[in-house]
Every structure is written in structure tokens, then in C-alpha cells.
Structure prediction request, 141 residues.
Amino acid sequence: MSKNVFQSGNVSFEYLDTWTVEDADTFNNPDCIATLSKGENNLLNVVAFPTPTTLDSYKEFMENTISDDGGVILESDFVQIALMDAIRLHANIKSPEITFDIHTYVFIEDGNIYIFELRTADYSSKTIKEYDEMVSSLILK
Prediction:
């Protein structure tokens, strides 16, 4: 497996060639700067937009939104990754069609928010490790 580099604006990160860069879903989410997939069960969206909020406020907002939508938060912590402070959240979402987990990292730097959200029905630790490695390689220029 080799590594590739995704670059859009001031955002860059490495990803393994087992992941495919898709067209960013800017129709449903105009702030989406990257969409990557791995097989049928893993979809990563990266969004970025200006924000006046803080990590503390956004963590509470994100937890409330997921809970209000019926999701179960399994983990929500402040962490340091890619040499930056971040929120790491893991939740389980059940819908009539599918049950899946979301793994999210949120960064707020220089008045912008950067969200990496993996939606997965693949519960292998290998996929989560690859996702964590992508986020760990994040560089904001």
C-alpha cells in the first residue's frame, strides 16, 4: 500500500491507496472539501468553513445534535492530534435503513473549523487506524 496526498486550499493530509477520492458532495454540503471512500462501508467527508465558535462550545453543540437525533455517544474527548487541539467523538447512529458509527475529529484554527467525519458500518480496527493516520497527517497552511 502506498500513500497519496490530498490537497485543497490550505488543507492537506495523507491517505492510503486503499481509499478512493470521490467528488466532494458540495450539493448537499457546500462546505465539503473532500470525500473519500473505502469499499461500500466507509465514507469520509472533510468540511471547512469560517466560525466564531470555540472547541468547548462546538463539542457541546455536536453532542446535543447527535443525542437529539437519537444517536448514542460512545466517546467524546478533547485530544491533541496533528500537533493541534481537537475534539474526538465516536457515536452510534441507528436509522431504519442502516446502523453505523461516526468517528469525528474537529479542529478550530484561525477562525475556521475543520471537521473530519467518517461514517462506517465496517467495525474493523484497521479502518479506524487508517482514518486516525489520515487525521494525524493533517497540515493546515
About this structure: The two ends are 27 Å apart (CA to CA). Strands lie at 3-8, 11-16, 20-22, 32-38, 42-50, 72-81, 84-94, 99-109, 112-120, 139-140. The first strand starts at residue 3 and ends at 8.
